[in-house]
């Protein structure tokens, strides 16, 4: 398929579409034919089912007793014989022996028709019974039209179904040759329409294929011409908007690119010729430029050689018009350098004179600074010793004040202890008084208990023999009360003695507290005096420390000044030596000023 021409492929496509259309038409005609036959067969089945329903109704009436079975059959056969429908349709009935039981033609009723075929030899009646006993079906056969028994035969279709209660096959049939006429008409109509469409499609396909292949052939010829780099021909069909037009436009674009490539090749050849000419001119110009540059380099090299020897009076010779600015700049630079070196030489002489004065002044300053530093060092040492002595005094005063403060604190604590002791003694005295009152209450309780025990003994004696046990208990209670009273009296006497001793202790503690208070007052006075002494000593120590610090700082500053003076003297010496070296270096240059390079005095060693 890929190697076939486009026209052949399009013809095959059109032929395939026509074949598909023909196949679709055949299937459509067949479907229509089947639909017509199905419709006719359904009509036959409907008529038979209508006859069966009539027979069922009469059978039901016979079973209901309205009539006998024979009467029901006769009435049903009469009704079914009268049933007709178009075209030429009627119902008939046979038993299983192929004997006609009802028919519109009365002569056929009661006839045995077994073994009687149709005009083609087909035993269609036996097939009708067979189809009916299977549940109903269509039987096709050929028969002449009514009124023309010797005429031609036509296809006829019959539907049969059995009525089981009476064992009768009910059937009906119609001619179907009219269906074939309709089908044939449909076939001819489809062939006519299909042929017309096929002819029209063929002409349209040929026209369309020629409309595609002819422009493609023209474009193919144009592409071959462009491939041969022929850019003079006109590309056809560029005005078309379809794929052919796109191919034509692409070919036109390719032709334009080939034309541009030819033009570009021509321009490149022209540019190559111009480049060769320019290259030869540049080579000659570069050769002349190289000669001039060699002359310039040689002239400036000679001048720089003299300048390297220290000759500042040298000047550059003529370098030509192109390098005139370089010559002027070189000569101006040397002139300014010569002038500057002459001024530096003059100033160097002045610096040589000044540096001797600076060196002498620095030496004297260093000596005076050293003497001052020695004096300050001795003064600072004496002041440090005085500061240490005052510091010791202040430390002793602080220590004395601390001890006096400690004693004063101990005295205050002792005073507080005495006060608490007096308070404790007072509390003990009060507690003793309260205990005395409690013992009095106990003494009264013992008296009352003794009295109760006596009464209990009297009552026990009155009770006689039954109160003896109670009398013993009363006696024991009385003795216990007497012992309690004796113990309470003894405790009361001891508390009385203790109270006297506590009172004496309170008086003694009070006297000791007063003595301690007087001692505390005296210690407080001494503490104030020692505090003042300590404060004064601390102030003196602070003042002396400040003075000592200032002296130390002054000593350090003096030492630093002395070191700086020594450094200044050393720097002045180095400056003097550097100045001598600088003057020697300057004198190595030759300048145009007379005597500019001569020294004004001999440098000190």
UniProtKB/TrEMBL annotation:
Main subcellular localisation: membrane
Pfam families: HAMP, MCPsignal, sCache_2
Subcellular location: Cell membrane
Positions of region (Disordered): 264-287
Positions with biased composition (Basic and acidic residues): 264-281
Keyword Oxidoreductase: no
Keywords for this protein: Cell membrane, Chemotaxis, Coiled coil, Membrane, Transducer, Transmembrane, Transmembrane helix
Residue stretches spanning the membrane: 6-27, 190-209
Coiled coil segments of this chain: 323-386
Annotated ranges, domain HAMP: 210-263, 291-342
Source superkingdom: Bacteria
CDD domains registered for this protein in UniProt: MCP_signal (cd11386)
Annotated GO CC locations: plasma membrane
Membrane association type: Multi-pass membrane protein
BP terms from Gene Ontology: chemotaxis; signal transduction
Residues annotated as domain Methyl-accepting transducer: 347-576
Family classification: Belongs to the methyl-accepting chemotaxis (MCP) protein family.
Name by which UniProt lists this protein: Methyl-accepting chemotaxis protein
Organism: Agrobacterium albertimagni AOL15
């Amino acid at each position: 398929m890929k190697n076939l021409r486009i026209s052949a492929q399009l013809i095959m496509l059109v032929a395939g579409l026509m074949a598909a259309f023909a196949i679709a038409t055949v299937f459509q005609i067949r479907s229509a034919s089947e639909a017509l036959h199905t419709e006719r067969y359904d009509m036959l089945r409907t008529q038979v089912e209508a006859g069966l329903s009539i027979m069922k109704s009469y059978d039901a009436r016979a079973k209901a007793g309205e009539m006998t079975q024979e009467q029901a059959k006769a009435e049903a056969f009469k009704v079914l014989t009268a049933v007709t429908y178009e075209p030429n349709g009627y119902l008939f009935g046979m038993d299983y022996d192929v004997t006609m039981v009802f028919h519109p033609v009365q002569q056929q009723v009661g006839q045995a028709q077994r073994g009687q075929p149709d005009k083609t030899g087909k035993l269609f009646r036996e097939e009708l019974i067979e189809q009916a006993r299977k549940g109903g079906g269509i039987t096709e056969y050929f028969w002449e039209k009514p009124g023309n028994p010797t005429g031609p035969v036509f296809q006829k279709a019959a539907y049969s179904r059995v009525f089981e209660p009476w064992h009768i096959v009910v059937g009906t049939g119609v001619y179907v040759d009219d269906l074939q006429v309709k089908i044939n008409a449909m076939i001819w109509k489809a062939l006519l329409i299909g042929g017309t469409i096929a002819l029209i499609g063929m002409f349209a396909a040929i026209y369309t294929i020629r409309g595609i292949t002819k422009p493609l052939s023209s474009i193919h010829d144009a592409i071959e011409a462009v491939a041969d780099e022929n850019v003079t021909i006109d590309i056809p069909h560029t005005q078309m908007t379809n794929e052919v037009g796109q191919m034509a436009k692409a070919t036109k674009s390719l032709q334009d690119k080939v034309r541009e490539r030819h033009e570009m090749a021509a321009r490149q050849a022209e540019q190559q010729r111009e480049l060769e000419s320019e290259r030869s001119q540049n080579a000659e110009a570069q050769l002349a430029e190289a000669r001039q540059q060699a002359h310039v380099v040689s002239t400036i090299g000679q001048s720089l050689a003299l300048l390297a020897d220290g000759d500042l009076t040298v000047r550059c010779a003529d370098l030509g018009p192109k390098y005139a600015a370089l010559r002027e700049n070189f000569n101006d630079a040397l002139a300014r350098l010569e002038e500057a070196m002459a001024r530096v030489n003059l100033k160097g002489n002045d610096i040589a004179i000044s540096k001797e004065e600076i060196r002498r002044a620095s030496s004297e300053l260093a000596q005076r600074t050293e003497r001052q530093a020695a004096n300050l060092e001795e003064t600072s040492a004496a002041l440090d010793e005085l500061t240490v002595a005052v510091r010791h005094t202040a430390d002793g005063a602080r220590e004395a004040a601390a001890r006096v403060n400690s004693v004063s604190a101990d005295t205050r604590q002792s005073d507080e202890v005495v006060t608490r002791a007096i308070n404790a003694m007072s509390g003990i005295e009060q507690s003793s008084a309260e205990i005395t009152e409690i013992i009095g209450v106990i003494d009264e309780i013992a008296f009352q208990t003794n009295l109760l025990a006596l009464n209990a003994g009297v009552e026990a004696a009155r009770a006689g023999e039954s109160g003896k046990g109670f009398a013993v208990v009363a006696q024991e209670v009385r003795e216990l009360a007497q012992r309690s009273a004796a113990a309470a009296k003894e405790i009361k006497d001891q508390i009385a003695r203790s109270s006297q001793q506590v009172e004496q202790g309170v008086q003694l503690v009070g006297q000791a507290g007063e003595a301690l208070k007087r001692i505390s007052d005296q210690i407080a006075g001494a503490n104030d005096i020692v505090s003042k002494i300590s404060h004064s000593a601390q102030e003196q120590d602070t003042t002396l420390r400040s003075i000592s610090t200032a002296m130390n700082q002054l000593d350090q500053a003096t030492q630093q000044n002395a070191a700086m003076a020594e450094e200044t003297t050393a720097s002045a010496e180095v400056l003097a030596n550097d100045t001598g070296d600088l003057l020697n270096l300057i004198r190595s240059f030759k300048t145009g000023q007379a005597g500019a390079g001569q020294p004004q005095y001999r440098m000190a060693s």
